[in-house]
Design brief:
By secondary structure, this protein is an alpha/beta fold. The protein has 9 helices and 17 strands. Helix content is about 30%, strand content about 25%. The strands form 3 sheets. An 8-stranded mixed beta sheet has the order 5-6-4-11-12-13-10-14. A 7-stranded mixed beta sheet has the order 8-2-1-9-16-15-17, covered by helices on one side.
């Protein structure tokens, strides 16, 4: 059984410097543990799932399709994002729909909480670029978003500032590190851990990055869509991320069908997107268990944190807090943790 009395001097090795591993490393380093974070890729992290994420912090919107545990973890994570990175934008999020998706829009409103319904004038006051585009919208004021490619380096810097060590191009496995009986190994490799966790599968999420100065948005906008909601997520330097599909396949790249649907839907949000410059197409494989729920697995001195699915940036902080609470106080969260 894993030692659960508080031992700040206990070394902690974490595998995977994506969003799950980064938050684990940060909270453990801040608690006084000797943390080493291993990442098989280089510092650019271009091969990581986090590189292709939307970075939406939207626990209320996710309640439409996700289990209550996602909302619970997500709401706690909002507090941790605010605490650790106070500059995180919490400008809320918007949900809009064209007349043909009206039923889906009303269903979304019934299944979610903590939103305000805006009329056309209220929407225009909040997002002037959307004036005249939609007759109403749902506004979720407590939600936020981060830009993954900017926020991950910030988290890595905070890990180092807290005394942690990060080793890039360090392709290690649990068995490579488990020989250190005095330490703890936390496995956050996503699909890289499938040899130890064969239940994992990859769910492809596709994205398109476009650039235009003709549209200004302060918050993510979700557009109801026959197959999936389109996300238009503002980023710095006049960039917008378009996503996010969830396709049950493990191939890479963006399909022609997805590209047409994402670009076409963006054009219906605002015609100026039709003149935008396409900067990048890409996709990432999100690690998911059969129930699409996250899992903290505990086996001796090894802990696995996996199955974050499409909620990585939303729930990673809370999962790290739960892992730390188990190691230091023996606290168990029965909805998330599995002990061998």
């Amino acid at each position: 059984m894993l030692q659960t009395t508080k031992r700040p001097e206990s070394p902690v090795s974490i595998i995977g410097a994506g969003i799950a591993g980064a938050w684990q490393a940060l909270l453990f380093a801040q608690a006084g543990h000797a943390v080493t974070l291993h990442e098989r890729g280089d510092e650019a992290m271009t091969d990581a799932t986090s590189h292709w994420a939307g970075g939406m912090l939207a626990p209320y919107c996710e309640a439409e399709v996700a289990e209550p545990i996602i909302s619970r973890l997500g709401l706690r994570s909002l507090d941790l994002w605010r605490r650790e990175l106070p500059d995180t934008p919490f400008n809320g999020s918007l949900v809009v729909a064209h007349p043909r998706e009206r039923n889906d829009f009303e269903r979304f409103a019934r299944m979610t909480e903590e939103h305000r319904r805006l009329d056309a004038a209220g929407l225009a006051a909040l997002e002037p670029s959307l004036e005249g585009r939609f007759r109403d919208a749902l506004f979720f004021p407590a939600e936020g978003h981060v830009e993954p490619r900017r926020v991950l380096p910030q988290l890595h810097d905070r890990i180092r500032a807290a005394g942690g060590t990060i080793k890039f191009s360090s392709d290690v496995t649990v068995s490579d590190l488990a020989g250190d009986t005095d330490g703890i190994v936390i496995d956050c490799r996503g699909l890289g851990a499938r040899e130890e966790q064969p239940e994992l599968r990859g769910v492809k999420g596709e994205m398109i990055l476009i650039e235009t100065a003709e549209v200004q948005l302060a918050r993510p906008v979700r557009l109801m869509h026959p197959r999936w909601p389109l996300y238009v997520i503002p980023r710095e330097d006049n960039l917008f991320m378009l996503g996010a599909t969830s396709i049950e396949t493990e191939d890479s790249g963006v399909s022609v069908r997805s590209a047409l649907e994402l670009l076409g839907a963006a054009y219906t949000v605002h015609p100026a997107f039709g003149e935008a410059r396409i900067v990048e197409f890409g996709s990432g494989l999100r690690p998911a268990f059969p129930d699409n729920l996250p899992r903290i697995g505990i086996r001796g001195s090894t802990i696995s944190v996996n199955g974050l699915y499409r909620h990585g940036f939303l729930i990673a902080p809370a999962l790290a807090e739960l892992t730390l609470a188990f190691v230091e106080r023996g606290q168990i969260d029965n909805e998330v943790m599995r002990c061998a």
